[in-house]
Design brief:
The structure holds two protein chains of two kinds. Chain A starts with a strand and ends with a helix. The relative contact order of chain A is 0.12. By secondary structure, chain A is of the alpha+beta class. Chain A has ten helices and twelve strands. In chain A, the strands form three sheets. Chain A has a five-stranded antiparallel beta sheet. Chain B is an alpha+beta fold. In chain B, helix 14 packs parallel to helix 15. Chain B is globular. Chain B has 19 helices and 28 strands. In chain B, the strands form seven sheets. In chain B, strands 3-5-1-12-9-10-11 form a seven-stranded mixed beta sheet, with helices on both faces. The chains are: A alpha+beta, B alpha+beta. Chains A and B meet through helix 10 of A and helix 19 of B.
Amino acid sequence: MYAFEFEKPSTVAEAVAALNSGEAQILAGGQTLIPTMKQRLADPGKLVSLSGIAELSGISEEGGVVTIGAGTTHTEVAAAGLGALSALASDIGDPAVRNRGTIGGSLANNDPSADYPAGILALGATIVTNSREIPADDFFDGMFTTTLEEGEIITAVKFSLPEAACYQKFEQPASRFALVGVFVAKTANGVCVAATGASEEGVHHWPAAEKALNANFSASALDDLSVSPDGMISDLHGTAEYRANLVKVLAKRAVAGC
Amino acid sequence: MPKDQGIGAASKRREDVRYLTGRGKYTDDITLPRQTYAVFARSEVANGIIKSIDTDVAVAMPGVLAVFTGDDFTEVGGNPAGWLINNRDGTPMKEPKRPVLAHGKVRHVGDAYAAVIAESVAEALAAVEAIDADIEELPAIVNMADALANSDNRVHDELEDNCCFDWGWIEDNRDSVDAAIKAAPHVTTLELVNNRVAPNAMETRASIGEYDPGTGDYKLTTTSQNPHLTKLLVAVFVLGIPEHKLTVVAPDVGGGFGSKIYHYGEEALVLSAARKLGRPVKWTATRSEAFLADAHGRDHVTKIELATETDGTFIAIRTDTMANVGAYLSNFSTATPTFLHGTLMAGNYRVPNVYVNVKTVFTNTAPVDAYRGAGRPEATFSIERVIDKCARELGIDPVSIRRKNFIQPDQFPYTTPVALVYDTGNYDATLDKVLELSDVAGFAARKAESTSRGKLRGLGLNSYIEACGIAPSNLVGQLGSRVGLYDAATVRVNPTGNISVMVGAHSHGQGHETSFAQVVADMIGIPEENIDIVHGDTSKIPFGMGTYGSRSLAVCGSAMVKATEKVIAKAKKIAAHMMEAGEGDIELADGVFTVAGTDKTLEWGAVTLGAYVPHNYPLEEIEPGLEETAFYDPANFTYPAGAYTCEVEVDPETGKVEICSFSAADDFGNIINPMIVEGQVHGGIGQGIGQALLEHAVYDSDGQMLNGSYMDYAMPRATDMPFYTVDQSCVTPCTHNPLGVKGCGEAGAIGSPPAVVNAVVDALSGLGVTHIDMPLSPNRVWSAIQAAK
């Protein structure tokens, strides 16, 4: 690890100010950034920790709309009784990761194998930042990329509780990240099917499945569909063909699990 | 009633108290006054010419004390291969020099070409990044077949090609085996890969070098399974330090699995640097360094043919193997794919004709050497997979074909066509036992239940044999070994009767401190807690060869028994004098000497005190004191054997394999501590399942290791493991060592991979799948199902 400066502001405004000076980087739960720094693969001159900002934590519900503060840990989300999203959070990493990692950090990092992006996309959630609100469909922008501006901080995520939802994750054997994960949600705006771990473009919808499930919400509605391996990730743990297969298998299981 | 002390008792592992409460003392736990830190600069390319290494900036950086490169070690010796193998034509193998630091060329990713010594690790790391190495990258040599086919691009320029040796075992059998296979009514052929694995000891390698300018003494504290062997290698072969000026200490060591048998250049570097700086120099490997620079295991590509009669009677086995040795010859890398592999190729079977051909191949990858099982897992996997395939082709069930060909109990000692003499065994007994343990009779019903849930269920069987307790020195000497493989123990009885036993074996998780004490306690009849086992420090222990090859109890334990017998014999003389009786009338039981036929007794402690306070003592006949040393050189290998079953359920949609149950019936001969033995079997099976389902050290065509971290290298976890059913009740004691023990450390890792793969192939056999290479990852299993459709 290289030497770095460290700031721990207590308000979002202070954090924004701190980020505007020098080579600063946001530190949320640190479950990706810290290991990367320990490997000397990242050298931020300054870390601005969000962990001291009280307004970023906590989960609330009003009128069927759930708001999760960006600094809320996976453990807290897992314990919040939010159905499929809590189940998703409960299976991220290991207890140490879940006790430190945050939903805002996970979304801002947008790891192509992370679990949260699938849930947030499928739930049609809104990502709230210090300057605006971004619909999930406009937020994820390819592997490790989002539409966040430089210095923009996620403050919360909000979504309407779905009628039914289920997340199915097939673990990569080593890291236990999602080799592929599929989140199916039946929402007021229709059925959403979002897959993580599969595409070279990162988390994505499966529109054909959504169309079929809007007409007939049953696993068998997907029987005649197939997923193209074009553009799928191919690596040590899974070929593009295998991942394409998993998207369909897991989507069916998620529908059955709703 | 089981005993609560001594041989056969499930005594709790005394060493676990310190291991589990954070009081273990590992190399990296040691911090010495004025200690400095070494960090290595390692090659990022697999194959390259070192054009220049500019260290000027690095040397001038804060805290930096010295920078070493290969130029600093051109005058010292190379790290040697421990075993000379001859080619089929009788010529010796190629033996390129393995330098302390790469010189002229880097030969694998992670090959160390420079080292920085600094006041702190952080300063050393910064200086390593400031070293300006101009390395001209060359095409990497990774694939073994390509390496053999292309002699223009060579790992070692001074050699004519990339083949280290082409070995035939037994070469005189070659023509007769060819003829037998040609004439056989049925031949089953299987091409398979025994996947490369990274050893992944929990504690990474670490070394501290010290030099005392006052005495000229060196000390190396290091993560070693065999401190005397390391001492011999580093002192005599590499650095030229007189042996009496070097102490090697292997303190608590957090697992080895073979990877800490060998001497590595880092050990020589910290000693040399300590001498130059006059300060202690510590190096501790990162996990990344462990992946790139520890000796890996396995990595064979094999074609095996099994010729049989149509009724399944074995006629001949012929194998053709390419074995990867990586970029340099690690100390036992030449023995592992040959004499620890080819000699086991008859398995537990009467096979009249066997011929093994092994070509070892230099590649631009990390060195490959012994890893838990070392050659024997590769042999067992090949044999037991081809037998299963053969049984299926002939329509014979896998149990019957094995029984039909087993060596029978009345045929021991049995000489195989690959030159081993099995002393004892009963293979039907362990097979019967495992079939009972795993409720094979109920398999059909369980399979039907799985089928009803859309899952594919399979049952796999394996019957293995291994050769442990290495090894008879005169025999291995004839076969090319450059070391003897005896071991040694000193039993030092202290004045009040408690005992320190100094042993050549090294315990790095095996529980010797408990089980060895049980043996001596049992022989004398005193409590186990009165006996301490001292190991790991060459200044304290006799010259033993260390721990590997499941040899510790069979070889070092035998030396300890011999030394204890000498102690008891002398103590009886002393007791006879003290009780004014004839020596032949003295008996020792439960720690009390008695004179036969009388009520005269003396406590053990009274006699031992007499030995050290010799006021009433036959000084004219025997020396005072009570301390004896014995060396033991085994007459033969030991031959643990057993049968394993594995039951799996495969999800055909995802290819995921779940192990539903795993049963193991092992014949380890006599058992000293059944709990420790059971733990060894559990650990071995865990590693075997890891190799079968998860683990694979993968290099791409550029020689980059693709999974050099736990994010991509799949280690088995508790949730991957079933609850095992293990049994050691089938006992045929070893006939040639005093305890009748055979060794249990590697069996699980040898016996489990074929059981797992046979089970998965059985599950998929209805689809026409006949083989899948390890690891049986979900993707590979799914792909095999798709290909069979």
